[in-house]
Amino acid sequence: MSGYKLLDRFIRFMEVERNASQNTRQAYQRDLRQFLDFCCEQWKTDPEAIDYRRIDRLIIRLWLGSLMQEKYAKTTLARKTASVRSFLKYCYKRGMIHHNPAQLLMVPKKDRKLPKSIRPEQIELMMELVDTETAGGKRDLAFLELLYSSGMRLSELTTLNMPDIDVNNNRVKVQGKGSKQRVIPFGNTAREALVRYLECRSELIGKKSVEDDRNALFLTDTGKRIYPRLIQRKVRGYLSRVSEVTCKSPHAIRHSFATHLLDRGAGIRVIKELLGHADLSATQIYTGTSIEHLRKSYQSAHPRADTRDEN
Fold first, then answer.
1. Are 4 and 33 within 8 A, CB to CB?
2. What's the pLDDT tens digit per position in 102-117?
3. Strand, coil or helix: what is 182?
4. Which of 2, 91, 249, 266 has its CA 20 to 30 A from that of 105?
């Protein structure tokens, strides 16, 4: 099998066998198309005539070298390397190539950047700025409160359906990475905002609304299921009015959720479960942003931490 057909089959494998999310599949497809196009350019051949058995470590290293010259971030390089490794492993296991040239390929180490969070008083101010005189305004306040109260991902928010929300018991069922479901609690402030939105949600349903839209929790002004770009634009707009943080995104609200919980004494394992992290190491990064958590841990553990107070 040659050309992009094998790539399409691999992406299908990722969806069915690995349960990879749409975002992951799209990223893998972009990375692998970029790699295969590079191979075609080097070999002066057409994508439909590409011979996967010609792929060796040299062509992979040349490709990674070209990406480094183009100043790709280490995080991106690591993902692209992982994409090629997974694809060639797939080809090798199915006998499409005789050896796996990426077997011993090292994945570049990622830069460890601390997440940016927004101060609690800025979150409070952002909520107060939302104009709730319209159905659209009530919707904005509801999803902002839900994002901050639950720490859910953007993709989890936009795929919420009406049966997923339980305002009577303050909990919501989300579908996370790898189609893993989890139930997250949310606070009374978010509950009140959701109740006010649900009372007028029918005003947003229009002639263009299809069955999926009618089932969605959050709708656009034209009655369609709300989509990630719209949420990102709105969050950026609201945050720009209250915070100087560089990353004004729904993920910054998720970071703030985790940091503020840690500041107020929540356990790191509880936060891991709320965030839906598969690995505790992904959650531990917040211990680097929570000065309050570090201060409390230091004061409770160091024998001379309270010396000044005793004097």
1. yes
2. 887 777 776 667 778 8
3. strand
4. 2
Spatial neighbors of 308 by CB under 8 A, at least 6 apart, are none
Q: Would you name the residues annotated as active-site residues?
A: 153, 177, 251, 254, 277, 286
156: nearest Cα among 276, 48, 282: 276
Cβ pair 111, 246 in contact under 8 A = no
pLDDT 10s digits, 40-61: 999 888 878 888 888 998 999 9
**Residue pointed to by tokens 């709105």:** 234
* pTM for the model: 0.71
Count CB-CB contacts under 10 A for residue 132: 17
**Which residues in 30-64 are b (16+ Cβ under 10 Å) and which e?**
ebbeebbebbbeeeeeeeeebebeebeeebbeebb
Neighbouring CB atoms inside 10 A of 75's CB total 13
- Those residues whose C-beta lies under 8 Å from the C-beta of residue 78, and which sit 6 or more positions away, are 107, 108, 109, 110
Cα–Cα dist 264/305, whole Å: 20
The answer to whether the CB of 57 falls within 8 A of the CB of 100 is no
Q: Cα separation of 220 and 213, whole Å?
A: 9
> Tokens for 285?
């990064």
Q: Whats the size of the chain, residue-wise? A: 311
